[in-house]
Amino acid sequence: MLNNLIQNNESRSINAFLTDSRQQSYDQDTLWDKLNLSQQYAVCSLGQFGYLLTYVRNFGDTTLAILKQNDKIATINEAGVININPAIVCRQ
After folding, report:
1. Strand order in the sheet with 52-59
2. Could you report the per-residue pLDDT of 19-36, keeping only the tens digit for each?
3. Residue 13: C-alpha distances to residues 10, 17, 40, 66, 72 (Å)
4. β-strand 82-83 against 52-59: which pairing, if any?
5. Which of 19, 33, 68, 70 has its CA 20 to 30 A from that of 43?
6. If we measure between CA atoms, which residue out of 69, 47, 57 comes closest to residue 22?
């Protein structure tokens, strides 16, 4: 998703993403409430493998769930599609 924003030269959206990700910290219940039903189902599926819901990021009207398991990262888009090899880097 971030790569798409970069490729499309949408720097305003990228800056909003970076600012938002640094300034907000939510508990698990708050993150869960930000997901739609498809994303919640996918989070439960990945949870069986030890992944934890870590972030929920909004890009305009699109929501992306980010999960971590040790040093592994997975994302879930609004359709509930899981990507276990996303092209993103999370800060520690």
Report:
1. 52-59, 62-69, 72-76, 82-83
2. 444 445 567 778 999 999
3. 6, 6, 25, 18, 25
4. unpaired
5. 19
6. 57
